[in-house]
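Readers outside the structure-tokenisation community will struggle with the description of the input data as it stands. For illustration, here is how one protein appears when written out as sequence plus structure tokens:
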Amino acid sequence: MLCAGKKSYFAAAVCIFTVTSMLAVSYLQLQGLSHQPKVIQEGRRCRGKIANSTVTALKGTKAFIISPYFDDRESKVTRLIGIVHHKDVKQLYCWFCCQPNGKIYVSKAKIDVHSDRFGFPYGAADILCLEPENCDPTYVSVHQSPHGNTDQLPWFEIKNRKAETFSVDFTVCISAMFGNYNNVLQFIQSMEMYKILGVQKVVIYKNNCSHLMEEVLKFYIEEGTVEVIPWPINSYLRVSSNWRFMQDGTHIGYYGQITALNDCIYRNMKRSKFVVLNDADEIILPLKHPNWKAMMNSLQEQNPGTSVFLFENHIFPETVSSGPFNISSWHNVPGVNILQHVYREPDRKHVFNPRKIIVDPRKVIQTSVHSVLRAYGKSVNVPMDVALIYHCRKGLQEHLPRESLIRDTTLWRYNSSLIKNVNKVLSQTLLRAQN
């Protein structure tokens, strides 16, 4: 016996502690090794279908894969953005296809369900797998077992493998467009405001929208401004249009918005200097600068080491109209004319104004809707005298009389360019929709 001959209680205690420590270290080493990639097949080509849907269900599990991304910021891993049941998905494995040597490696996944699940049984998750050291795989599959036939598994292309130069300064991520979305006029106005402020790309996770909205999206796709990501999440899960679980049998909140936002950050990590997370009825309006580029240059200079910039949301009720921009040619276009809404609600006592975000995507690990959950670098709340979010929607303080609202005509600084650009888009999209 390892501790035989020891007579004192103290020596026995030391001995027990030593043995326990040795066992614990051995266990942890084994656990670490279990995540290391292992060769399971050699000398054959990887077979199976390439996944081409934005949302792919993993057979036999309560897990869904959106897309995998190469991430070497801490170690050489594949990070799969996914959706999982927070209790029932305990074990997954990545199968890496290494060509041309014909080896298939299996790596046990770490499943990291994001903390902002808001009570729903399904939530956004990172599925993390160490990659083989001697291979830069371009495809990965995911399975609940380290054994099986690769011919039956869907393969996913691993994005962000190649280094790229920034193709744009600002990308806006909008998620998710659902409910037969038909707020056409406000959407066009927001798009044209984004472009005036310096946005080159808008990524939209689209569940569904109206016929006229489809024509508008086609216009912007052809123009090169919009990228539409199909988002058929309701084909797989019972979705809620609320952000908080209402005990109503739904599976995931707000059409999987958080998952889409995380995917959008990683999708644009290598190609956009900044990524902006806001909704289609929200515009970050700079008060001290003419555009976002000048604003962000100033904010970065004043806040070195900051990777997350949070802007305070302010409601401009769509029920309170004012101003000289009641444009008759817009009357037959469905949606809100934001130029007529320049009164904002005052802050409410003891109520936190939510924020939306501009981030350096290369520094973000996980994001929620109103905050970044994990990131490299600091976060800063941008003062309201620098910029605010113009959010034109149904009011939250509908009982307030007009004289209690705050007149804020910052938006009108852009009215000339905005009206001209909106008219141009409407003339082309309405004509197309009528044909």
Notes: The helical segments are 9-34, 184-197, 211-223, 257-267, 292-302, 415-434. The chain has two domains: 40-157, 168-433.
